[in-house]
Amino acid sequence: LYPLLFPPDSSWDAAYERELQTFQDIGDAGEIWFGEESMVRIIRWLEKHKVPLDSSVLDIGTGNGVLLVELAKSGYVNLTGIDYSPSAIQLSEKIREKEGMSNIKLKVEDFLAPSAELSGFDICIDKGTFDAISLDPSDAEGKRKLYVGSLLRALKPEGFFLITSCNWTKEELLNEFREGFEILEELPTPKFCFGGRIGNSVTALVFQRK
């Protein structure tokens, strides 16, 4: 795998402040983690499985909030995005306003120490946040366990968790989420060939909370 290089914790706010300024200057929403195909993959899965449009959806580490905007355009009405970076939430609020998506809720939240109200969601989505936590040089293993605990509290029993990762293989993710979750489906992602072997640079899985 070719790991995506995430900035250290201290750099996230600075990165989103730059994107916020760029959006204010020229209307560019900034980086879409894993590209637009990752958003299409998620929305297609929800539509294929006829997930009700009023299902409560939590976007963990929403960044610029573009995924939530696309979900809203697809008809979903109960959308929440969280990010621990205030600049990211500011940016996503600006984009929400520009798109006229007033039904999208946005909050500054640290998913590793979530507020009590962050619970009862039908769907949780992660595109790169678990990856970033996994690369934290300060007790990454402990933080991954905190993440799983937070996810168990945030998601309803039998709720769905859709994760996109470029740092973890399917087998590794199955191990990380073995407590309280079962795998439902692996979603197709682009493949690459290196040294005669074919592999995936991105892993996308759907889990269901037990």
UniProtKB/TrEMBL annotation:
It catalyses: L-lysyl-[protein] + 3 S-adenosyl-L-methionine = N(6),N(6),N(6)-trimethyl-L-lysyl-[protein] + 3 S-adenosyl-L-homocysteine + 3 H(+). CDD domains: AdoMet_MTases. One of its GO terms (cellular component) is cytoplasm. GO terms for biological process: methylation. One of its GO terms (molecular function) is protein-lysine N-methyltransferase activity. InterPro entries: Efm4/METTL10, Methyltranfer_dom, SAM-dependent_MTases_sf. Pfam families: Methyltransf_31. This is EFMT2 methyltransferase. It comes from Notiomystis cincta. The gene is Eef1akmt2.
